[in-house]
Fold this sequence. Notes:
Elements: E1 6-10, E2 13-18, H1 21-46, H2 55-62, H3 67-74, H4 79-86, H5 90-97, H6 105-115
Antiparallel strand pairs: 1-2
Amino acid sequence: MKHEVQLIEKGGKPEWAIIPYKEYQELIKVYDYFDDEALFAQALERNKDSETIPHDLVVRLVNGENPIRVWRRYRGKTMQELAKQIGVTQSYLSQLESSKRHASQKVLKLLAANLGVDIEELIETSSEIPSV
């Protein structure tokens, strides 16, 4: 491919390169692409030890599904397994997952540790906007 380049020299050395505008636009696209790729690679490297959350899990949480149930299922645990691991009955865990009861701080800490999440991830939030 032949490039139309005009060089402007200063002191006998190339100082400027003038290229057709179309070629300039193509170079900018390529530069932006590789710049974005580099930023993406840097972000991946910085967060390589962090867990990524699947989109469908986020959607379920945003749509108001019980976070304890969502995280338990995501971690591949049965209700019976999780209840045993945190020292509560399966019935109690079922009530927590159906939002019929609220977990104590102690149980929330046990759930969070067992499911590998922060306590805040297990607390249901209302989707309603409070009146001021």
